[in-house]
């Protein structure tokens, strides 16, 4: 590589002065400065900033001119654009203290075969979700660091290395690191449209924090939390036994309250209401407010309320608004949008089984045929046939979400779909499907936007909304450990270790039940919002502890744990408690 030079300094410190050789100095030059030939932990200097002086220490320093289309026509860009001179920092007189080596040559043929193999693997197998998985391994601090080392150490030990060559993983990690470093420290040197089109390369904690900041900047209408009363038992009776009316469910009761006071009334930093459960003794110190959000979401997706229906999908459970819902219940969908805004603002994550394209609709993104296919197995089959050229028997028609009815599109049922019109046909199909539920979707969106006060943002997308409302989905021992504190166990380390051993035996669903048992939440709150979220575990002093069950105080996120003789006893007792004691009264 002819654009690399090695400079050897023989004094403690020296100054390198760069001089412009050309009247047409290119702005797309990038100078990399490193202490190693492989440019580990390199400093990067852009454009005309290259002409600023730099200081280097004793020993070897490597300089490289890279990037920029302007380099392609020159065997040695140094000769064309820049020269450099070395000065002893302690002497006013210029002094030659550099051993200017020949250009460093890299033997390309020695790595060509491996490089081609790696690039073919990358080009044919690497998918956007692999980039997303890799990106989620790094913290924002890792990606902002000048050194690539922290990102490299995480990348080369990731599970992706079992699927792709390690060089590919590290190359992608390097690109992500450089991209985010430039985004953080040289944002204004890159055109804004470029950043807008590459938001999926920015870590989620940064994009989410930016969107949350926009929400927080909207003024709160009221600082006083509204006292509301919910008849939870009536809701439970309807959902379990079918006795009563769907208007008795929590989602309908809460929707009535939200529509009564207005969407913006519930725009507050904290949960905007104190909850009183009819004929229950619970006092809202945080627990009932969390429970009401959980029960509102659960009842919204319960078949008895007829607000959402499950899509035909063999892989996952996805729901869409009921296409047959009457217009008069759009107010319930609007209230659901307000509830989503409250969940995101407060960080009280929930399991919300929307078909993924619904999050995209709420964010104002375009809905693609792949989005519909993700939620609908039969449409996925149709899409595969079209993509593979099997179009002989496909007519210009579309089915409803339940596939029970067929409707003619613009071409009519006699018109065959020809290859040159596949994209037009798919767009009409998508428009037809979305049109069946558009009123409901728009009602949810209206409620969400009215409560947040934000209808557009550079990082607003479906994935961000889904992440802020639901988190990653899994509750693991690894992400429980940072939020659990043990109180009064300083002389009983074995009980702490026993607790973690028991949790290692739990599956994801059981860990979610444990979290719900202690806090009423099914997801760990968004740490970007609630950095102080903690669960505290206390010793439960009692006679015959092996016969006692753990108890919890959901309002204060406390677990009281008896001292069990063995892991098996602890496992059985804790599992029984979390499976059969899931309301505040049972706790």
Automatic annotation (TrEMBL):
Gene3D superfamilies: Hect, E3 ligase catalytic domain (3.30.2160.10), Hect, E3 ligase catalytic domains (3.90.1750.10). InterPro entries: E3A/B/C-like, HECT_dom, Hect_E3_ubiquitin_ligase. It catalyses: S-ubiquitinyl-[E2 ubiquitin-conjugating enzyme]-L-cysteine + [acceptor protein]-L-lysine = [E2 ubiquitin-conjugating enzyme]-L-cysteine + N(6)-ubiquitinyl-[acceptor protein]-L-lysine. GO terms for biological process: protein polyubiquitination; ubiquitin-dependent protein catabolic process. PANTHER family: UBIQUITIN-PROTEIN LIGASE E3C (PTHR45700). Its EC number is 2.3.2.26. The active site is at residue 555. The keyword Transferase applies. Residues 264-587 form the HECT domain. This is HECT-type E3 ubiquitin transferase. The keyword Transferase applies. Keywords: Transferase, Ubl conjugation pathway. It comes from the Eukaryota. GO terms for molecular function: ubiquitin protein ligase activity. SUPFAM superfamilies: Hect, E3 ligase catalytic domain (SSF56204).
